[in-house]
TrEMBL record:
Keywords recorded for this protein, A-Z: ATP-binding, Kinase, Nucleotide-binding, Serine/threonine-protein kinase, Transferase
Name of the protein described by the UniProt record: Protein kinase domain-containing protein
Binding site for ATP: 78
Keyword Kinase in record: yes
GO MF, one example: protein serine/threonine kinase activity
Pfam family of the protein (one): Pkinase
Domain Protein kinase: residue ranges: 49-322
Family per similarity comment: Belongs to the protein kinase superfamily.
Organism: Carpinus fangiana
InterPro entries to which the protein is assigned, alphabetical: Kinase-like_dom_sf (IPR011009), Prot_kinase_dom (IPR000719), Protein_kinase_ATP_BS (IPR017441), Ser/Thr_kinase_AS (IPR008271), Ser_Thr_kinase (IPR053235)
Family matches, as PANTHER family: MITOGEN-ACTIVATED KINASE KINASE KINASE, MITOGEN-ACTIVATED PROTEIN KINASE KINASE 10
Length: 323
């Protein structure tokens, strides 16, 4: 219990990394059309912003670092290309826009505006249209970048970020939103050391039991019931996906502790078959001898293969490791 006693007297998580994404009440249940755009009092059009550089690329779009010309405020601008050949990107954009227009939490990355017609250089390449998300800029980058810089994190820091992610999941699940892609690159860090949940491209509103969506997300962080619904009960009409977010957090927590993806051996190729065998049938990863009982217990509650027995967000928020 030494770790727990120390943790209770510490301030919020502080992750340090050399520098390297709302507010309305719109209900979204998975429509694929684009929703009404979300303006900001300060950001009315894209010409209000000036590009400073590229933060990342992938998934049909680009994330830019931008500055608001009038206020000098820095934002992250996520630009999704809506080419007519990219049906999945259009669906992703509609889903993400709908969710971002609903959420407002200190544990979730804030969306300040949703605007159409992205930066002309990107749209002109394909003759398509763009949808842009003006997001809160997180100076510390992602948890993935933190791990690249530091390899491993101490338990006290892992405890702090795990609690923040759990608070974010409690908020999202309370709104019936399944994130569906909790992983280090989707957990962002600001200059205060606060971790926030980002990227809702594969998130969804759980409209009923059995809504598990096993075909989207990042395979390495998927839960057994998403990887193999028939064997692990994801397709029996009872699973709703919330437990899958808990599993993903457990993988992330363990990864931060051991310094590498924990479910397969170092150097093994994480192809689909390897990941499926490890997630659905593999032995529980070994933890260092120095691992505290509280940490070990927390991870085991997250990585319970039977989602019915897995720890819930509320239970884990009360777990000694997070106190």
């Amino acid at each position: 219990m030494t770790l727990v006693r120390e943790r209770r007297h510490q301030q919020e998580l502080k992750l340090f990394l050399p520098l390297p994404n709302p507010a309305t009440d719109h209900q979204f249940c998975g429509e694929t059309h684009l929703l009404p755009l979300l303006p900001s009092p300060d950001i009315e059009k894209l010409s209000d912003l000036e590009k400073m550089g590229i933060l990342g690329q992938g998934g049909g779009g680009t994330v830019y670092k931008v500055v608001h010309k009038k206020t000098a405020t820095i934002y992250a601008l996520k630009v999704l290309l809506l080419d007519r050949d990219y049906g999945s990107i259009r669906k992703q954009a509609a889903r993400e826009a709908g969710i971002l227009k609903r959420v407002d939490s200190e544990y979730i990355i804030r969306c300040h505006a949703i605007l159409d017609d992205g930066f002309s250089d990107m749209a002109a390449k394909s003759g398509g249209k763009c949808l842009c998300f003006v997001m809160e800029y997180m100076e510390g980058g992602s948890l993935q970048e933190v791990l690249r810089a530091r390899q491993r994190l101490p338990e006290t820091e892992i405890s702090g970020f795990a609690r923040r992610v759990l608070e974010g999941l409690r908020y999202l699940h309370g709104m019936k939103i399944v994130h569906g892609d909790i992983k280090p690159s989707n957990l962002l860090v600001n200059d205060k050391g606060e971790v926030k949940i980002a990227d809702f491209g594969v998130s969804r509103v759980a409209v009923g039991a059995g809504d598990c969506d096993s075909d989207i997300g990042t395979c390495a962080y998927m839960s057994p019931e998403r990887f193999d619904p028939e064997r692990w009960g994801g397709g029996d009409g009872a699973a709703n996906g919330f437990a899958g977010d808990v599993w993903s957090l457990g993988v992330v927590v363990l990864e931060c502790h051991v310094g590498h993806f924990p479910l397969i051996g170092v150097g093994r190729i994480p192809d689909w078959v390897t990941l499926m065998c490890a997630i659905c049938f593999g032995e529980m990863p070994e933890m260092p001898e120095t691992t505290s009982p509280e940490f070990r217990s927390f991870v085991l509650r997250c990585l319970e293969r039977d989602w019915r027995k897995r720890g819930t967000v509320s239970e884990l928020l009360g777990h000694p490791f997070c106190e």
